[in-house]
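Supplementary Methods S3. Input chains for the assembly prediction are listed below.
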Amino acid sequence: MPKNKILVSGNEAIAQGALQAGCSFYAGYPITPQNEIIAYMAKHMEQAGGAFIQAESELAAINMVYGGSAAGARSMTSSSSPGVSLMQEGISYIAGSQLPAVIVNIMRGGPGLGNIAPTQSDYFQATRGGGHGDYHLIVLAPGSVQEAYDLTQTSFELADKYRIPVMILGDGILGQMMEPVQLSSKKIAANTIKNWALTGCLGRKPNITKSFYLREGALEEFNLKLQKSYELIRKKEERYEGLFLADAKVILVAYGTMARIAKSAIMQLRSQGKKVGLIRPITLWPFPQAPLNVKNKKLKYLVVEMSYGQMLEDVKLAVGGRNKIEFLGRSGGGVPSEEAMIGKIKKLL
Amino acid sequence: MIERIIIAGSGGQGVMLLGKVIAEAAMRQGNYVTYLPAYGPEVRGGTSHCMVTISDQEVGSPYIAKADALIILNNPSLERFKGKVKNNGLLILNSSLAKSDNISKVKILQFPFTDIAIKLGNVKVANMVALGSYLAVKKIIQTKNMIEVFKFMAPAGNARILEINEMALAEGERLAHG
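Predicted structure tokens for the full assembly:
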């Protein structure tokens, strides 16, 4: 029995990863399929020395996170699609105040109240900001339970480093499925010095946290500052996993759970000698440009999503018309199957 | 090696627990494993299912289109999942609550798991009798590893629960060996 290896659901792995990363404030409101996160936090946050609040609504939860973060605590909330829609105003304020925070969206079917089935149809909302204003979140898309644990820890570090809200974007399958996770033995110290935090100003100049700029030119000035920070993030933080890219004739582009199903399809095709590869974006914003910027014009792409073509737009932007791009997508509870992918790829080869 | 198992029964028959103990034992043996529960509005009396994939390599899709083995504990589940097993795959069937008429091209192993569990003293261990039969046929999980998982998962201080689950497992194995 390997040491510190546990069988755990994606949701619980996210909660455990957050506590490991020194998250000391969590506020949330229950919604399927992410309830295990809030349940785990309710049970373990106090012991970890932090504060847990079951808020009266998603609006309250995100604004509590806004406050917790302003006070310097590593702060987090989690929800699922309709709940994350309700949080958009608060997320925009957090981005506008340049505060770090971690927001987890374990996506379910939409639009509206939708259903509780897995989906990836909140990609636009997550990667385009979601609320009002010219802002971005860093968006991380784990492809396994281990990665959900690891990336949650990363998300707190990125949030502090760039003073930006970070979103973990998963779907119901990732949240609910259980896989072995190797727990990290060392606790990440929340050691970023937050000299901007509202910690009481006795003996120093008061800090101000706000997203309100009325003086002429002040808001544009602030937006330019944000854009500079986004540019740096684009330069430094693009992440992806590539599989068989060197000799592939068709490359699947998929993230999260869809990338897992794509991997099965690819392994099956490779065993038949077919030259197929995979690009799995791990950061959805910034979207990884480099692996899609290649000279080989004969290369073809197949984008697979649990939506009707949202990441597809980013793939098209990155490819810039150089290569043929096909799409396979289902939504509202439908999950594109291995067989459907294989059928599409065989037509492209 | 890759083994894809679909487990289905009525809500309350311990379908999820059965999947979890298999996954936990596979992990302890050093295998790669994925456990995917159905998380919809399952209710007592309806059908409930989970999917477990065990491999010596990283698991791709956690979703199973065609299973190597089905463990089915009631008739509605049999109706729903009988088409989801590979040709010459294995069907472990609870004959107390399901009938195997009109099923072909599948290796069927059926015993009245629910009746056996009642005789052992607790209807809830029908799932573990079925597990015993599965372990005896497939030999992917060693019995001693499974018993370690029982010890890990059973509530502390209740020796009787551990004992009856071990009895159920042994009975399932004995039946499968004939």
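The longest helix of chain A spans residues 218-237. The longest strand of chain A covers residues 101-107.
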